[in-house]
Amino acid sequence: MVSLPPHPPLALSSLQATWLFFRRPEDLKPEERENLQQLRQASPDLETAYQLVKEFLQMVRELSGERLEEWLGKVQASHLQAFQSFVTGVQQDQEAVFAGLTLPWSNGPVEGQVNRLKLIKRGMYGRAKFDLLKRRVLHHSPKNLERKNKKKQAQQEDHLETSRVRKKNTNSEHTTSLISKVA
């Protein structure tokens, strides 16, 4: 008698499998949890990789970079080839990685502005010179948009006030003309 495996073989791409490793267990759907469990049981190397990824993500989420040296030691002891280029990069820039894993500051807002500028620049490629780029960048800047929104809101409030005054004056003129007709 031939015994069947308890679960059918997984049909996941490497990208899907990687995504399962990077997400928090509580964010996974039941089917994804089952797939992750099957992956981890498929090979001791996959279980080791999962544990290493989990520890690194925990350092990132909790800003606990003081455990970086210990984690690097575990990765080197695991002899997993997939991690070696990552570890080499971390070791080459260890001070910056340590700062990123311990300090609460982020250069995300700056990177967002750089991305916005590059997007505008790419959209204008070959069409105009620097002066037009400058105008488009300033036109789309958050401060300028905020200023425009405030100005627009003030104009709307002025318009409402003006229409209220006109309506009030129209009513009083209408009342005055009615009184004059009666008298």
Question: Keywords for this structure?
Answer:
mainly alpha, 2 domains, 183 residues, elongated
Layout: helices, strands, pairs:
Elements (H helix, E strand, L loop, with lengths): L13 H9 L7 H13 L1 H19 L5 H11 L2 H12 L1 H9 L5 H16 L6 H10 L2 H41 L1
Helix pairs in contact: 2-3, 3-4
Q: What structural class do you assign from the helix and strand content?
A: mainly alpha
**Overall domain count:** 2
Biggest beta-sheet profile: none
Overall strand count: 0
State the helicity in percent bands. over 70%
| Tertiary shape | elongated
Beta-strand percentage range: under 5%
How many angstroms does the end-to-end distance come to?
114 Å
Counting H and I runs of at least 4 residues, what is the number of helices? 9
Low-confidence parts:
none
Overall average pLDDT: 83
Oligomer: single chain
Structure in words:
The chain has 183 residues and is mostly helical. The protein folds into 2 domains: 14-102, no CATH class; 141-182. Helix content is 77%, strand content 0%. It is built from 9 helices and no strands. It has helices at residues 14-22, 30-42, 44-62, 68-78, 81-92, 94-102, 108-123, 130-139, 142-182. Helix 2 (30-42) crosses helix 3. The longest helix is centred in the last third of the chain and has 41 residues, at 142-182. It is elongated. The model has no long low-confidence stretch (mean pLDDT 83).
